Amino acid sequence: MTIRLAARSGFQGAARSLVLAATCACLPAWASDNLVDNASFESGLSGWLSSGDVGWISGSAADGLASAVLATADAALTWTLATAVDVSQITDFSLAVQNDGGALNLVVLGYADGSSSGTEVMLFDLGNADWTRYSLTDQLAAGQQLLSFTLYGSSGGATLLDAVRLATVSSVPEPGRAVLLAGGALLLGALGRRRSRA
Q1: Quick one: residue 40, left, alpha or beta (phi over 0 = left, psi -120 to 50 = alpha)?
Q2: pLDDT tens-digit profile of 1-43?
Q3: Pick from 87, 109, 135, 172: CA 20 to 30 A from residue 12's CA?
């Protein structure tokens, strides 16, 4: 009898742990995935559309080993998302910049309805020789769906760009987790019925 109770207790504890793990897994969570591939330019300019005097260097970076170089104010890098993202779901839109003569002249945000908005250079500190992270999250137009963004260089000197980040919130549980939760709940129910019969 003692052995049977110990086994039941251990089994019930495992079932409760299973339900707890599944419940925690299904709670809303902040996604850690970056919607920008090659965000640190480790694969050169792959995935980015460039125009003007744009390059790539290794050995100077805010993250990893490489960064993009926007040599002039006309140099531009554009990233287009595979699917437009609702601005209200974006939790982090930021980038790292280094330029001892200026930062970025302009950032143009493109939306799914064909409209765009630009942010002026006053958003950025000028004359910063160190890598500095800038957030653009608050510059996104409310009620819009972001489809692309274009980063322009500076007339004050070559701008190094790195570690671009575009992250969104995710509150939808994966199907596998939902199944795990349901299975654990059924298991606990069965254990409760067995206990009431004993």
Answers
A1: alpha
A2: 443 433 444 545 544 444 444 444 444 444 458 999 999 999 9
A3: 172
CA distance 156 to 34: 30
Cα separation, 10 vs 185, in Å, equals: 16
Helix, strand, coil fractions of the chain, as percent rounded to 5: 30, 40, 30
HSE at residue 37, side-chain half, CA atoms within 13 A, is 9
| Cα–Cα distance measured from residue 34 to residue 29, given in angstroms and rounded to the nearest whole number | 15
DSSP-based three-state secondary structure for 191 = helix
- Distance between CA 188 and CA 14 in Å, rounded? 10
The three state secondary structure string of 15-44 is: HHHHHHHHHHHHCCEECCCCCCCCCCCCCC
Q: What is the enclosing helix (H) or strand (E) of 95?
A: strand 90-99
Evaluated on CA atoms 24, 26, 32, 37, the torsion sign reads positive
